[in-house]
Amino acid sequence: MTTKPFDQFNKRLFQELLSPFGQVIPDLAVLGEERLIDVFFAPFPGATPDFSELGVLAQMVTQPALLEPFRSALSDEDLQFCLLKLFLVYADQKRANPTIPVTEPAKLWILAAEVSDRLLHDFKGEIDPDLGEGFYLLSKGLKTTIVAIAELPTVPETLWLRLMGKDRTQEDAIAELLQMPEADPKRSNALNLLVSWRINIEVTNSVESEEQRILMALSQTYLEWEKQTERRGREQGREQERRSIILTSLQSRYGELDPALEAIVPKLMELTNSDWLSLVLRLSKEEMLEHFTNAS
After folding, report:
1. N or C: which end of the chain has fewer CB within 10 A?
2. CA distance 66 to 233
3. Looking at residue 98, what is its pLDDT?
4. What is the pLDDT of residue 212?
């Protein structure tokens, strides 16, 4: 199971957006050797995702769905491996005691930052007449659509998908997110996830050369998040968001949280955002615990 910060961001974003409409299962294991579906979505009976809230993502999850995001260009091996997981889901549904919580056929959605013309030609990908530019249907029997995120039109209906892209595509989507009304809970939730992603990149030292540009865009989301938390003060809901980000940062930096680390979370919450983040980045686990033991 991957622990890359961007993969965590994708899975948590799908959970935030889709959980009101169905069961969202990250890292779902399927038959055979351990193979994990990045995100499996099973809609609640009678629930209809709201297009005005989710845009084209609402059209993608009207039935059970495997959601497989890739930050890199999609390779033949990536596509083949995703198809294997889809077929294993179908095999599971044929068992007497299936482990996957749906009875109707699922569909595979592969979301990739870039998709080559050669790959689309080799796998017979054709533009989806209903969803349009950037959506490529494979042969009908495969029940699979490839989403080429870089090709999606820059419209509000594609915002949540473009946040999963890279380079200019993602930078523009982040800028659009910051322009949304501050009272919109989806803006706030996405902002929190982006802040967590930025912090995770720092605490895991996973900044690659190609990530420098997006780190600058994420820095803007961090500044906006700081302003937002200061404006709203110490409201209970806002404090819960800060607690969640602190817990995520501690886990990314030190691994599984034990009681000793959890005990210092209230003390970290008393600090400013920049102060607690500085401690997490600078101190080892032992030094962190000693710091607050000596301070008490």
Report:
1. C
2. 39
3. 78
4. 58
Furthest-apart CA atoms within the chain: distance in Å? 65
> In what helix (H) or strand (E) does residue 148 lie, and over which residues does it extend?
strand 144-148
| Mean pLDDT per 10-residue segment, the chain (296 residues) | 64 87 84 74 87 90 93 92 92 79 87 95 95 95 96 93 88 83 76 71 59 60 60 56 78 80 87 79 84 75
Query: What's the pLDDT score for residue 234?
Result: 46
Residue 206's SS3 state is: coil
Q: Quickly tell me which residue has 């530019």 as its tokens.
A: 133
Instruction: Judge residue 231's burial from the number of C-beta atoms within 10 Å of its C-beta, 0-12 exposed, 13-18 middle, 19 or more buried.
Output: exposed
CB 243 within 8 Å of CB 269: yes
**Identity of residue 67:** L
The CA distance from 100 to 29, in Å, is 9
What is each CA distance from 9 to 27, 185, 196, 201, in whole angstroms? 13, 17, 8, 11
Sign, Cα dihedral of 61, 64, 68, 73: negative
Q: Give the dihedral of Cα atoms 230, 235, 240, 246; nearest 10 deg.
A: 30
pTM of the entire predicted model: 0.71
